[in-house]
Amino acid sequence: MATVGQLTQGLVDRILNPLNYINNFANLTSGLAKDLRENLDSQKEHLKPDVYDDSVDLLNMMTSNLEKISEHGFNTVRIVKAMEELLKDRRGNLTLTNINGLCRIALDKLKKTYEQDIQEKNIRIVFDNLTLSLMMEVNVEQFSKVLAGILKNSMYALLKKSEIFLGLKVNKDMLEITIRDNGSGIDENIKDKIFAPFFTTKTTGEAAGVGLYLCREIVQNHRGTIEVESKKGEYTQFLITIPVYQPKTITPPKEEE
Asked: Model pTM?
């Protein structure tokens, strides 16, 4: 697996470099096409009408083609960078963290990012925090990505006058994190696919389809589980369960034989 990872990382690097050239030159050429159009318009009275019209049509086609090149180029970069994200080591780096505070920061970022949508759609965000301060050793950066990723998906699924709920509960020696929205829900026939890498119901321009896969991996690296429950058109609920007391070094759980 280490060899595969090295080969894949090498492939990612080799792909990103020419992709960046493609995107940069597409943008530069779009600027040149704009300058050419301005020059053409300035000389319109000196050109035959059919020559001018044909030139404008050609420029429109060039501009449209360049836009498609840029769009697909940036979408491909998004996918390749998602591949690169999958190769990162997400174990260890534990920090004693206030769980209430960690969740509150994630919600504050969500509210700031989607401030306009929250106001326009009258979205209600509810945080049912722990009554007592709970300090746990977690990878703050990675676990923040889990919260942000699922909350972002909830926001994407919401309809007007909807609600996002984030609740914390300690059950024996386990922390339970519930994230629920009463949005569009998940189709039953794709529910078992949502944690698969590169699977997404969004367009290629919106997502690469690795978010929930990484969420599950991060939770598993914290020796936890993540489950989803959903009903189409009514709600989606994620339940994350992790041990309150983590070992000093997090390692992936052993696979069952």
From this structure: 0.65
